[in-house]
Write a structure and sequence with these properties.
7 strands; 264 residues; single chain; alpha/beta; Rossmann fold
Length: 264
């Protein structure tokens, strides 16, 4: 067994994640967690709008961006959270801060807030892929869409046809993140995070277990977010949900909507 696997696996020592600072220290802090197979670079448009008023910190999640990509790792929620907690501890943020998560990053943000709520004054969840147990979904359309997405995810990660050429083809069609085609080492972190963070998500329980204010955004044209499922978060407690005409990625219109919220 390699030392890396003993140190980080058997002894459960968290990995050191890549962290990047944007703006001038001393301003209110916003920490941003990207989605599956993305990186801190996916926040560039939003950061450009926030920098006049905020000090922004991006963290590349385990397996993605410039962070380590161990091929043996489980990429469970617990493993992601332990690495994130080490990163937060190293930041030594003074005072309260806003935690923003996109897609899988939204699922991890809510779980992190449940475990480590101190100093988080607001959660902002962008395109959260909320997939409740099928037998709890009330609307027929939401049920069908959720079931279809879960089937597609399982088929995608189990398929024997996911060779590098096919991965590149699917990325060109927009079916999987293009970063996977550029970095083959991201494929295993993607598959395992898909299964153990998105398919086996805990967002409903996490929101029930925290009193931190939550704002959730989703685009009406998003193909992997079920709007009715996101709106159902308001039934748990006082969660504000915002929708706009847009897709999954945090583009210009999306960034402007979030910046307007944080400017209040």
């Amino acid at each position: 067994m390699r030392f890396d696997q003993i140190w980080h696996g058997t002894l459960r020592r968290p990995y050191r994640l890549y962290v990047h600072m944007h703006g001038e220290p001393g301003k209110p802090v916003v920490v941003l967690l990207h989605g599956i197979a993305a990186s801190g670079e996916s926040w560039d448009r939003l950061i450009g709008l926030l920098e006049p008023d905020y000090f922004c910190i991006t963290i590349d999640l385990l397996g993605f961006g410039r962070s380590p990509k161990p091929q043996w790792a489980s990429y469970s929620i617990d493993q992601h959270i332990r690495s994130l907690h080490r990163a937060f501890h190293g930041l030594r943020i003074h005072g309260d801060f806003i935690l923003v998560g996109h897609s899988m990053g939204a699922l991890l943000a809510t779980n992190y807030a449940r475990r480590h709520p101190a100093h988080i004054r607001q959660l902002v969840l962008l395109s959260p892929p909320v997939y409740p147990p099928l037998d709890t979904i009330e609307g027929k359309l939401a049920l069908k869409r959720t079931d279809l997405l879960m089937r597609l995810y399982r088929a995608l990660r189990k398929s024997s046809h996911m060779t590098p050429p096919n991965v590149r083809r699917l990325s060109k069609l927009g079916m999987i993140p293009p970063s996977i085609a550029r970095s083959p080492a991201t494929w295993i972190p993607f598959k395992r995070s898909l299964e153990r963070c998105i398919e086996q998500q805990t967002i409903l329980d996490d929101i029930r277990s925290t009193s931190i204010p939550v704002d959730a955004f989703y685009g009406s044209l998003d193909t992997v977010v079920v709007g009715a499922n996101v709106r159902s978060l308001t039934k748990i407690r006082d969660v504000r949900v915002h929708s706009f005409r847009g897709k999954h990625s945090v583009g210009g219109a999306y960034s402007e909507a979030v910046a307007r919220l944080l400017a209040h």
